[in-house]
Amino acid sequence: MTEIRHVPIAPTRTQWLTPGGAIDAHRHDDHQIVYAGSGVLAVTTSAGTWIAPSTRAIWVPAGTMHAHQAHGKLALHLVGLPATDNPLGLDEPTVLTVGPLLRELILAYTHNPHDDSPERARLRAVLLDQLRASTQQPLHLPTPSTPQLRAVCEILHANPADDRTLAALGRQIGASDRTLSRLFKADLGMSFPQWRTQLRLYYALVLLAENTPVTTVAHLCGWSSASAFIDVFRRTFGHTPGLRQPRQ
User: Fold this and answer.
1) What is the pLDDT of residue 7?
2) Angle at 61 between CA 56 and CA 65, to 5 degrees
3) Which of 11, 15, 109, 172 is most buried by its number of CB atoms within 10 A?
4) CATH numbers and ranges of domains, the chain
């Protein structure tokens, strides 16, 4: 990703983005917690894309070149933390679970970013405690670096419902399934079925943010039935895809 903008301090604020809106590639000297109070947020770096609905937040380490993409009307809550204050000890973007308490802490902390009262300092301390207790989620769609994988991934990005085997996809691009399977593990750190599930969940979240019916989402993203989609979605996100997002 080409560097476009350097913002020395990661600002704490709330920002609304319209569906399809974006914040261009930039980096901060500080860490940042990025949370979508409504809509679905995608954060992209040169290593891939992390996606989060309102039950997840994304940790963006200091110095990471990244861009934001909104799916649905996005209430973007940004919490900046000094580079010396890394409560999670993470050096790469990571998706974190956001429970009801952490959600309210983020909303309250970003409501009045210029407040420097002792009460807000205590609020920040509790927020950091909740972050430390938050579980990490493998909601990452890595970007392939090898030509063979890029070809396969482009086919499936164009049609997430394509249910061909890796061998069949390999025949189309001129690579064996054994070679592709090895490359998925070596280049992307996951198996082909794991990557395809991540891809389908990514597009499912995008479609749900656009108010697409659950049955239609299941069909467009390659699940055999709505119930099969709902089962995978619930196991991944802890709730059904039809659950309404909290009000802002």
Assistant:
1) 67
2) 100
3) 109
4) 6-140 (2.60.120.810), 144-237 (1.10.10.60)
